[in-house]
Design goal:
353 residues, alpha/beta, 13 helices, binds S-adenosylmethionine
């Protein structure tokens, strides 16, 4: 038996069960055996590939949406750029390159770069970018400036708890052991005490997913934005509102596998609930734009024109560039299922789409 299973089973035997969030916390973040201590997690040879890893245009187009709001952003003396879960940091790299090229005053205003990153295996890449970032483990360490915060596929990587709605009550779903000592999901006997995050009037059997960590982090970000000004652009897989099912899934080398398979060596993620993110942002005095589909957002800010220009300058790469675009905006790729949400302070009249 692999050590990570021994650790989890010991915990379960002690308490009879373990919460879904705690289970996947160990699986993802354990100091030695956790998934994020693996080296090959992103990229073609890893378990998944992300938009900034597919194409430089992702960061470039995101920058366009910021550049169009520069007349408001420039009213602030100093600006920090913060990326949550940057992985190899390609998104921040592409944004800074674009701002430098298209608006040097905007670029010069950025006086600090922060990466909130948990996985030590990415630190090397982040340092190699030559941006002198502060790599932080707590959003509280971000300076009290106007903050531009970006997060691509960050919230979907956070471990969450699951709750099921049955006969007008919410019950936590937990993980325990069957008689053969195999992991299994089970439903807590007593109902859960709910808070404002839980959906109102869901259908029977609906599974709701969230974590206290995610709520607190988002609330802290919104408080910073509403106090010091800022823009937070969040791009993520979105939960399908019509589905009652839980969304946690496990990927190994780009393929879906059983949630308990090869623990510590598979990527575990879920699909965040954008209604919940909006609710928390508005409760914390922020304004919200969207969600927009990734396809609509990228096309509105010029991905077609940008790709055409790149093709004109690199005709031999035409097929490659068109394939990159298709992967970012195609309905059967990332275009529809990924959503973009923008959270801002209420002081300035920003315009997003
Ligand atoms: C799916 S990857 C996305 C990477 C990058 N944003 C991109 O688009 O290529 C998720 C990232 O979030 C980081 N991460 C996961 N949980 C985290 C946490 N609790 N705190 C900070 N970073 C975390 C991972 O290490 C990884 O860099």
């Amino acid at each position: 038996m692999k050590n990570i299973e021994i650790i989890l089973k010991k915990n379960i035997k002690k308490f009879g069960f373990i919460s879904v969030e705690k289970f996947f916390n160990v699986v993802l973040y354990h100091d030695e055996l956790g998934y994020y201590n693996n080296n090959k997690i992103i990229g073609k040879s890893g378990d998944f590939i992300t938009a900034p890893e597919i194409s430089q245009t992702f960061g470039e187009i995101l920058s366009n949406s910021l550049l169009l709001n520069y007349s408001k952003i420039k009213k602030n003396k100093l600006v920090s750029l913060v990326e949550l879960g940057p992985g190899r940091g390609f998104l921040t790299r592409d944004i800074l390159r674009t701002l430098k090229k298209l608006n040097i005053d905007f670029f010069k205003k950025i006086d600090a770069i922060y990466f909130l990153e948990k996985s030590k295996s990415f630190f090397r890449y982040l340092k190699e970018l030559d941006l002198s970032p502060s790599i932080i483990d707590d959003i509280g360490k971000v300076s009290e400036n106007f903050n531009i915060i970006i997060a691509n596929e960050f919230f979907d990587a956070l471990p969450v708890n699951q709750y099921i709605f049955r006969k007008n009550k919410w019950y936590e779903i937990v993980i325990c052991l069957d008689k053969n000592e195999k992991f299994k999901f089970s439903i807590a006997k007593n109902p859960t005490k709910i808070n404002f995050c839980f959906p109102n009037n869901p259908p029977d059997g609906y599974i709701f997913e969230y974590s206290g960590y995610m709520i607190n982090l988002l609330a802290d970000i919104c408080k910073k934005i509403s106090s010091f000004g800022g823009i937070f652009i969040l791009i993520d897989y979105a939960r399908n509102k019509k589905s009652k099912q839980g969304t946690i899934e496990s990927l190994k080398q780009h393929r879906k596998v059983d949630l308990f398979f090869d623990l510590g060596n598979c990527d575990i993620s879920y699909k965040p609930d954008f209604d919940l993110i909006k609710k928390i942002s508005v409760n914390n005095n922020c304004k919200v734009f969207g969600p927009f589909t990734q396809s609509f957002f990228l096309q509105s800010y010029g991905i077609n024109e940008r790709i055409n220009l790149l093709i004109k300058n690199n005709p031999k790469q035409k097929n490659e560039l068109l394939l990159q675009k298709l992967r970012l905006i195609g309905d059967n790729y990332m275009g529809k299922i990924f959503k973009v949400l923008i959270i801002t302070d209420t002081k300035y009249n920003y315009e997003f789409i």
